[in-house]
Amino acid sequence: MDDTEEMAATPYAEAIGPLPVLRDTTTHVPAWERETSRMGVADSAAHALFRGVDPISPGTIFAKQMDRLPHALVSSLADLSSSITVVRRRREVGYFRRFSSFSEAFHDPVPATPSALELVLPPPYLLPPDGEEPPAPYLTKARDARQGLTGYLVGWHQGEYSSCPLALRGQYYVKAPQWWSDYEVPYGVMAEPPLVLTYAREELRRGDPAAWSVFRAEWAVSTAVALLQAYDERRVVLLYPPRLRDWIRSVGATNIAADARGEPDDEVEGKLLALLRLLDELPHTSAFVERLTNRAPNRRDRAGWVSVVLEVGREGSRALVDEDLAPYELPYSTAVTEARLAVPNPWGAAVARRRHLVRFPGGGDVPPSSAYEPVPPVSAPPEPRPPTVVPPRRGDNAERSQRVPRRIVAADALEHGDVPDHRFDALHHLPPRGVALGLANFLGVDADELERYPAGYLVSALCHLVVDVSQGVLSWCRTVPEEGSTDLEGLLNLVGRRALRDAFTRSLPRVREGAEDRRRRWSEVGDGYPEGPPSRRARLEEYPSGWGR
Asked: Is there a contact between 247 and 145 (Cβ–Cβ < 8 Å)?
């Protein structure tokens, strides 16, 4: 029998019997009896945990864990770990045997930093979804268990953890080290706990140097994979702490980005290094975290990421911040930089002097004269500029408008240049399920929040948004500001980026209520859609082709 046959595994339902159903208590006892009758598992640490947490009905605790492992496999006795009596996923078959071989050959103390030599599983590590990956809520619960002074390192599959009394957790779980906060990921990061925590939990509890060396290397790889996936799926960079980034660099971007043959993927490696370099340039202060939190106070994870865009040039890949986080001096993307240059103030001039990859409308590295005016040196005070007189208006305000100069005020207006072209191109080919992601990238709204609504609701919300903004602009045009720019700035903010985002979010509940009300009225009519309003009928008569359908 060759090594491939020895490392084969059989689905649990075929080798042992049906998995217990968590909500069907009648299946717990039979499943527990079948499990305890297996060879080599009755005295395992995993079953000691089940019996210790609930000695009266350990089958229920067993069902809580197996409910999270629908793809559980049964491996050979040579690859059976005492910490878990099944294999969670196909790619983990043979992991415990590889770890045992590594542990036997490990005689050195734990090195200062992890390295690729301590990785038990071979590459590739950045894999496409296969249907066996852990759901996001399980990863979030595992992270929550690691928090606080009494936190424990828990696998995502250990659903029985919440049922274990606090006094007993130290007997069955690995306590989070005191240094763990320096290597923890922000809330909402989908980083899977290291595999060694699942298959060698007892070795970690004993403080085995080999197990902890593997743990650090695997955690660096897992967090690096989460960093890359977050950019690919959401175009954001996760705000990892500095020491965790050091671990990722110590393992090596070349090793993390390797393919199945062990050859490095230059594109993935360049992307990972660019994201790490950007993280080095971002400030790690409480004020910066507060700035991010204030952008979406209702989102607990907002302080853990920043929108970015990746530019590839002759010098390689470069990650740039793709949202306005003023007044911080960051490597902003071209869209944000150009938007700031449209305002003639010292900030725009400072940005222009600091950025080396600035591209201006019309091309070239010199801004057009209408974009902004550089600030003269301190020794040469700026020349006074004559006030510009607004042309007279018709009506009662004509006389007053002649004496009101046109003022330049700062406004966060959303323009076409604020959004990269690739996002517009992506909107043209969006499937129905991608409408939420496209709008999220465009408006800066969280994609998870928008995916709760059908695509029709989102389009209707955009229609409401256009009407609301139009009313705001109309009110602005009808109002002539008094002396001072405070009122003018307030009116400009009605069409700013933040106002658009807030108005769009507020429109969603109104769209849903309107859709439900129309559905109710249609059901009352009973014979098709009700006749449209007069304005709608007039348009259909004027445009026989069916405008607006």
From this structure: no
Tokens representing 198? 């699942």
- 28 in Cβ contact with 60 (< 8 Å): yes
| Phi, then psi, of 91 in degrees rounded to 5 | -70, -10
Residues 197 and 193: their CA atoms lie apart, in Å, by 7
Average of per-residue pLDDT across 509-524: 69
Question: What 8-state DSSP symbol labels residue 367?
Answer: -
DSSP letter string over 203-248?
A: HHHTT-HHHHHHHHHHHHHHHHHHHHHHHHHHSEEE---HHHHHHH
Instruction: Give the mean pLDDT of 462-490.
Output: 60
DSSP strand E in 401-526: where?
Answer: none
Between CA 202 and CA 208 the distance in angstroms is: 9
Whole-angstrom distance, CA of residue 216 vs CA of residue 201: 14
Sign of CA dihedral 469, 474, 479, 485: positive
Q: What is the pLDDT of residues 324-346, one digit of tens each?
A: 887 788 899 888 887 776 655 54
- Omega within 30 of 0 (cis) for the link into 11: no
DSSP characters for 401-415? Answer: HHTSB-------B--
What is the tens place of the pLDDT at every residue in 370-383?
333 333 443 444 44
| Residue for token pair 């297996």 | 38
- Return the structure tokens found at 211: 């197990």
pLDDT tens for each residue of 20-31: 999 999 999 999
Residue 341: what residue type? L
Looking at the chain, how many residues does it have? 549
Per residue in 79-132, pLDDT (tens digit) is 889 999 999 999 999 999 999 999 999 887 778 889 999 999 999 999 888 888
Q: Are 182 and 188 in contact (CB under 8 A)?
A: no
